[in-house]
Structure formats: structure tokens, C-alpha cells
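Regression test case RT-17, inverse folding.

Input:
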């Protein structure tokens, strides 16, 4: 890991003239003049912004977020304990509507109109990256997760083996190494011809995985058939399906949007490809019960990476819940089946509140950034250690292979999501053996 260089040109001096809003002014009196009236609050109050996709095509990621925000508010009592004192804590949650432009606009509103001290963002580059960019430009500390770190880091302009261009924005999530370890572990559980079909769109996730993951799969002895990037929203996948059929593809991966994958898989079934597949392991889709239920029988047997499940043994330091207790609390509150985003979003609050508390001065932006940079904490998804890299501003979290299987008769929910391997974190329990995909 290359240590952050405080002298690097990317380190912005908040006293520099020309910075937007109050964040560009160093003096307290000048800041007071720049703040809108709605943003003024007692100096003891700590404000945290939280942006995620509650509606739109990425709404599956946001389904559990209102529960998580309410849980954190209740468990903390609206207070943050810092240096022996208790300070008011306000969480300002916003819906990006799965729109990158709206995500950026919301971030700017939370910065300029509400004076947030820390921004949190989660769930895919379409949400996380524009929020991080807005915070970097404004000089506001930002933490984000559930976006492959290469999509966040390189997708925002960082270059390999060069100093980080980011000072205010930090990210923890799985990445290519975690995907590769999980994929290879899953795929090694069943015999196959080792021919992989790769369905990667022309977006941040697809481009990052094509560039960084495919070479690792090839190095491990797999033949990857990549028919090329396609545009999100494609409605005819006949060309890709024909190439996969002709090449004898038995393993399918990729990073399609949920709606696009549903279209692809139905066409694959109609054109004879689905019967050829033994393992189906997409990224970004099949993560939630609603995704899989929408596929009907075509969804049974899909494997994906779990960034959290009740099989994870860790407890959230901010709420005291984890594992099955967290899943049960959500189901009791909502009547719905748990999703892995429970852990993803809760871990963001675990890390964010820990950083604010350890800063000793949660309204001092530089103090908060310093605390994040040095943070090493166990969250509900496992250990988050920014001092360990793999690059500045980034920490990695585990990805565990899991499979969607029909639930036994009489079960409350139609599907079960069970772990099948744990190469990336042996502390996570394996719950079942891998079943072949079949239609």
C-alpha cells in the first residue's frame, strides 16, 4: 500500500478561495455567512448524510435501508459519544432513485443546505461514484461501500501505481481479488469444461471486471468467451447467446443490471443455452430474493457473492446485532425476507460512527479524514482496515459464494440463500453443498 502523502497536490486546503459554499471558507465567521439558515445548528450536533437507491432499477439494494437507518437511530438514541461526551447525532437519509445525476445533486444539497459532517453512500457505482465526486470537490469526508473498489477507484480517475488523487473520499468493499477467489472456489466444486461466458455491459462495473478479473480467470485455466460490451437496457441478446452456445459455455458470469439479466436468461432458455449451463454466477444480480423470484424457475440454482448473510459471525458495534439476529429483526419488522444489503448498509454506519467517534472532533473535517485513514475496525461484515490497502483510500471486505435454492415445503419464503464456500473468510459458515444449475 502506498501511504497517503499529505503533501500531494490532491490534498486540498479548505482555506483556498473559490471553494463552493461554506466548505471553501476556513474561518468560523465566514462559514456562518455562507451557510444557509437551514444548515445552522448547535456546534455540538453531528450531521451524517446517507444516500442509497430506494427506488428505480437498483431498488433491490435499498429495500432494507429504511430499516437500517431506523435501527441505527434507535440503538444510538440519536447520540454520538466522543471523547467522554455525548453529542446530538442527526442522520439525513436520501433516495438516489437509481439516478447518478440525482445522487450527485442530493450530495450537494446535503453539503450546502444541511452542512453534513460525514457523507455515507452505498450500492453500485451509479450511486456511490457521483456522491464521492461531489464530496471530493467540496472537501467533505465521505465513506462508501457495496461497489467493487476498482470501479470506485479507477472508475473515478485514479491510476495504477500512482499516488491517490483523493483526499476526502474513502471506500471499503470487495474487489477483483475477492471475486476471483470466490468464483474459482465455487467453480471448482463441480466438474465442467472450464469454458466461461462473460456478459459484461459497457458501464463502470462491466469495464472494471473485464479489465481486471478476466485475466485472473484465464490464468487459473478457464477459457473466457467475451462477446464484447453491450449497452445497459439491451433487449436482444441473441448474438451473445449464439456465441456462448457455439463455444460450449458451461459457466456463465457477468455484471448485468437485474432487468437486463432477466431478459438474457429468458432468451437463453428459449434458444437452448440454459440447458447447457452447469454454473451461473453473475455479479450485481441475483443478490436479493426479488431478483431471483422474478426469474421463476430460471433463478433456481444461481450462485452469487454474498457480502453478508446470517452465516457471517460478526456483530455490528453500532447496534449490537449481527448474523441471524439481524435477519430476524428485519423480517419481524417488515414481514419480508432478509437481504444481504442489511449487512452492507449497517457496516457503513459501523465504520462511519467509529470514525467520527475516534476523530475526537467529528465536526473537524481534517480530523475525521485522519481517523478514517487510520481506521481498523470489525463490523457486521467483518474487518475493515484502511491501513492495509490494497491502495490508498480503500479497504477490502470478504465475498462468500452462496446459492439460491427452493425452500422446503411449508417454509415462510419460497427461496433460501445458503453459503457454499468460504475461501475469502473461513470464519463464515458453509451451509450447503453446491447444486448444478438446471432448467
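Golden output:
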Amino acid at each position: 500500500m502506498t501511504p497517503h502523502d499529505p503533501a500531494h497536490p490532491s490534498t486540498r486546503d479548505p482555506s483556498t478561495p473559490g471553494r463552493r459554499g461554506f466548505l471553501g471558507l476556513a474561518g468560523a465567521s465566514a462559514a456562518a455567512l455562507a451557510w444557509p439558515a437551514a444548515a445552522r445548528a448547535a456546534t455540538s450536533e453531528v450531521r451524517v448524510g446517507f444516500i442509497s437507491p430506494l427506488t428505480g432499477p437498483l431498488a433491490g439494494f435499498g429495500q432494507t435501508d429504511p430499516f437500517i437507518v431506523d435501527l441505527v437511530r434507535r440503538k444510538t438514541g440519536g447520540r454520538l459519544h466522543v471523547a467522554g461526551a455525548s453529542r446530538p447525532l442527526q442522520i439525513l437519509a436520501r433516495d438516489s432513485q437509481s439516478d447518478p445525476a440525482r445522487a450527485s445533486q442530493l450530495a450537494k444539497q446535503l453539503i450546502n443546505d444541511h452542512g453534513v459532517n460525514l457523507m455515507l453512500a452505498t450500492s453500485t457505482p451509479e450511486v456511490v461514484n457521483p456522491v464521492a465526486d461531489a464530496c471530493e470537490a467540496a472537501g467533505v469526508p465521505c465513506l462508501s461501500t457495496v461497489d467493487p473498489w476498482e470501479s470506485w477507484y479507477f472508475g473515478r480517475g485514479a491510476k495504477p501505481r500512482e499516488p491517490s488523487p483523493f483526499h476526502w473520499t474513502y471506500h471499503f468493499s470487495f474487489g477483483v481479488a475477492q471475486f476471483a477467489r470466490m468464483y474459482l472456489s465455487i467453480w471448482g466444486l463441480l466438474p465442467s469444461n472450464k469454458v466461461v461466458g462473460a456478459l459484461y455491459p459497457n458501464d463502470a462495473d462491466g469495464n472494471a471486471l473485464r479489465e481486471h478479473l478476466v485475466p485472473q480467470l484465464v490464468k487459473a485455466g478457464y477459457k473466457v468467451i467475451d462477446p464484447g460490451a453491450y449497452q445497459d437496457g439491451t433487449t436482444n441478446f441473441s448474438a451473445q447467446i449464439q456465441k456462448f452456445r457455439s463455444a460450449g459455455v458451461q459457466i456463465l458470469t457477468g455484471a448485468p443490471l437485474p432487468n437486463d439479466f432477466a431478459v438474457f436468461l429468458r432468451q437463453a432458455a428459449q434458444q437452448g443455452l440454459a440447458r447447457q449451463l452447469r454454473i451461473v454466477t453473475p455479479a450485481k444480480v441475483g443478490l436479493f430474493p426479488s431478483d431471483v423470484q422474478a426469474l421463476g424457475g430460471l433463478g433456481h440454482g444461481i450462485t452469487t457473492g454474498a457480502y453478508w448473510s446470517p452465516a457471517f459471525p460478526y456483530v455490528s458495534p453500532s447496534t449490537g446485532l449481527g448474523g441471524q439476529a439481524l435477519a430476524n429483526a428485519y423480517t419481524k419488522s417488515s414481514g419480508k425476507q432478509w437481504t444481504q444489503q442489511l449487512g452492507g448498509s449497517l457496516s457503513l454506519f459501523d465504520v462511519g460512527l467509529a470514525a467520527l467517534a475516534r476523530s475526537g472532533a467529528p465536526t473537524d473535517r481534517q480530523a475525521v479524514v485522519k481517523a478514517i485513514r487510520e481506521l481498523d475496525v470489525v463490523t457486521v461484515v467483518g474487518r475493515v482496515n484502511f491501513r492495509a490497502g490494497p491502495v490508498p483510500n480503500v479497504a477490502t471486505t470478504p465475498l462468500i459464494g452462496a446459492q439460491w435454492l427452493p425452500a422446503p415445503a411449508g417454509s415462510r419464503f419460497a427461496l433460501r440463500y445458503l453459503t457454499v464456500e468460504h475461501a475469502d473468510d473461513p470464519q463464515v459458515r458453509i451451509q450447503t453443498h453446491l447444486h448444478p444449475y438446471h432448467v
